[in-house]
Amino acid sequence: MSAEVADQLETYYRLLATWNAKINLTGLQLSDISPDALDRLLIEPLVASRYAPPRVIRIIDVGSGGGSPAIPFALGLQQARLLMVEAKTRKSVFLREAVRSLGMNGADVVTARFEELLARPDLHEAHDLVTIRAVRVEPRVLLTLQAFAKPGGQIFLFRGSGHADPSEIVTPPLTWKATYPLIESLRSRLVVLEKRVPRVVPRGTAG
Q: Which of 5-14, 38-47, 164-173 has the lowest mean pLDDT?
């Protein structure tokens, strides 16, 4: 981790702690942060960024809340463009302030439910990576989320110890690719799903 990224992470944490005292951005205690909270907010997303496929250009994070994992994850990748989707206005205001304070020129925030964004053609199959932590994962949600991923793109699901492995409910065009451990003390893991590239059938060839 570079000194620049370390400075940005410290700035992000201090900003999060200040705003969290006024509005509820995270249920974690930030005034006297514990190692587990630090691992959850900052270290876990950095570890997950190591599993990102090469040449990730566009990321969309759904249910961004207080900005973790999206912001530390994007800082770990550095050059990727990040779109954070957050339905609550006050949290979106914080996210925009974080983006400004951190100098994340390639990052943006949209205040909306992710289902509403299906009507935007510019977001359809436009992202190399979809990241999600706080949203409940079920087949209908996965079917919606895959619409934002390019064919061959991936969905990163941040899962805690109390979450079932969603690989059992994956349906086409998604497939389970891998599950990686993240923070041992938190028993957290990263479930990676991949969107299949449609098979092209040559003309004149029976299905």
A: 164-173
